[in-house]
Design brief:
Length: 471
Amino acid sequence: MSSTAVLWILSYLGLVLKGLGRPGLIVCAYVLTFYLAPNLWWWGKDGPLATTNRWSLYTGIVLIVGIVFNAPKARSLLGADRFVLFLLALYTINCTLVHFFLANYTIISFGEWDLLWKTMLVAILFRLAIHNIEDLNWIMATSVLACGYIGYEIVVNDAGKSIKSRLEGIDFPGASGSNGAAAIMSMVFPFIAYLVICKPFKYSRILGCLCAPLILDSVLRFNSRGTFLGMGISGVMLILMARGKSRRDALIAVFFGVLAFLYQAQDPKIWERFFSIGASQEERDASAEHRIESWKAGFKMIADHPLGSGGRSAFISPRGNQYIGHLGYNEYRSVHNGYISVAAGWGVQGFLLVTTAFLIAMGRTWLAVKYFQQLGNEKMVFLGAAILAAFFGQATTAMFGDYYDGEWFVWLSIYGLVYATFETVERERIAEEQEESQEIWANLDREDEFEDEDDHWESPHATVVPMETRS
């Protein structure tokens, strides 16, 4: 067994065991199994790690145990939490009904449905397990560190293989291929900015500075134009969502991010794909042209079957394949658009349910950002802006890949809800301080009143003239 495998096991077990008293750390262990699933890496192909590929399942079970053990410490869910989780539950029920009654190709649909309900269950567990800002900091740092290691494998150890100037062979649960890998790894750039700018713990800046170039180099090798566009939108959103002094910090982070991108993007093919996003019909390459035609076919499929046709039915199904037959494809192909994929697969009603849940979570995050800006808490403002930037960056990349309801999307909505609870905690703290202050002043006022009464009763005796003096 390699030293990397030993380090992974020790890190995993350390997080799980400590997480029994602090379940937020078990969330870190789960994130570790997502980014660095042992069965997907060379160091997990043999030895004890190769005995199972269900690490996320076992971690989820332990997470439930940790949540139960620490239930007395947990805060009650807010109204926004309950409503968002309720919408996600309705979305899961909707997908269940569509799969069992409307799915056109049940073999593929079952795999999507099976992953989906587990994802939504994990979302609930995440929300119950993350209790404070330290938990959220650890989770973000774990994501950055895991992506940094993947970048190390790609840049130093030449993981993956180059096919048509794009890096392939780096897969994650729920996302495969260059587009999926690029999207997932690009999600952590706002988190890196938060770790470097705000320094939430001792070595966060070192961690961010070491991982950033490795992750950026890897994303460039994936050469995903959707991810490049998403990174740009993420940077813009970070600046727009940051308020007050935090906007200056966001501008600094984005400025250095752009410089790093320009410095490392030396391959002309990167720029060719990037500028093809806004190319005219005459200038588009075959890939971009076929993608747009697939989107049109997806909209037609939605119009014909608005209640859905099962998971990934556009166009990995006999029904879906009929809509792209004129494009000359001889095999099932993805629509390469998360929004269309969800609407065609789980119905328009499913798309509306999950989108509403995401928007409410992000809206609640934005309100908390405004509150912390009023208090002048710049670190909390920047953290909220980073979560919003990561979400909208991913929402952009979802236009180019079938992962709008992917696991990491749901994580971001949960992070936003958790962040919003910090506003409630701060309000309660301020209210308690005000009550204590009022009690102190009230006690001082009562003491002053007692002193005044004592002076009032003593003053007549002080002016009494003795009998001997009067005589």
